[in-house]
Amino acid sequence: MTQSEFATLPATATRDALRIEYRWIGTARQDAPLAVFLHEGLGSVAMWKDWPAALCERLGMRGLVYSRPGYGRSTPRAHDTKWPVNFMSHQARDVLPALLDALDIGAAERARMWLVGHSDGASITLLHAAAFPDAIAGAIVIAPHVFVEDISVTSIAEAKVAYETTSLRDKLARYHDDVDSAFYGWNDIWLDPAFRAWNIVDEIGTISAPLLAVQAHDDHYGTMAQVEAIGNVVKHARVHALPHGGHSPHRDAPQLLDDVIVQFIASHRASAA
User: Fold this and answer.
1) Which domain holds residue 132?
2) What's the CATH code of the domain at 18?
3) 92, 190, 216, 233: most buried, per Cβ within 10 A?
4) Is residue 13 classed exposed, middle or buried when 0-12, 13-18 and 19+ CB atoms within 10 A define those classes?
5) Which pTM was predicted?
6) Mind listing the pLDDT tens digit for each residue in 252-270?
7) How confident is the model at residue 1 (pLDDT cuts 50, 70, 90)?
8) Half-sphere exposure (CA, 13 Å, Cβ side) for 213?
9) For 192, what's the count of Cα atoms within 13 Å in the CB-facing half-sphere?
């Protein structure tokens, strides 16, 4: 990947101006379709490591990775500010479109664009695809959340203990300018009792673009019920279960995951041709 660059998103009526960290992948493939990668709840540009570049190479695509506000080198979350229950909807409908605008990614390019989201980033991908059903070529969601499960809350509570008692904070600090902003922004809202009612199943039924939903059986942050719910409301979606790969199959089972993604996109390219 190239070095990080920064885009400024102007202030709106609902948020302050934001400085967003991003990197391009495969810029030599100038005419290729674009894949935009949306990271997990503790992710960032750097935490993707080389997986997006490897996948883009196989797909023959260009890529864009970025750090959401509060993560990586992007504008930190103010420590006295708590993400609202609908924070993922805000990211999907406001921040991502504003970033695409800032980078001059127009409607024609977006129509060829694939979104690849992981965990919270997968939920944001679903919400964006639902809000702008004719604006993307397709979407890949890995370990998505569409409602809150006990297994998720339990694992996130365990992560808080690990952050406060082990070396986890030091490890995450390598990837975030303000590691406490990043961690507690994610952890506090997921452990908020009000968040237990969060559910986007009814919102994603408008997705019309090709959709692949991938879940590993040994994911300790969610179960197959998540992708099954997606398949129930988005009838054309392909739901795929990985035998292993945990919550981050792009890290723990990349060959398995990449093969599924490449085959899925190739099949839609062939049908379009």
Assistant:
1) 5-272
2) 3.40.50.1820
3) 92
4) exposed
5) 0.97
6) 999 999 999 999 999 998 7
7) low
8) 27
9) 17
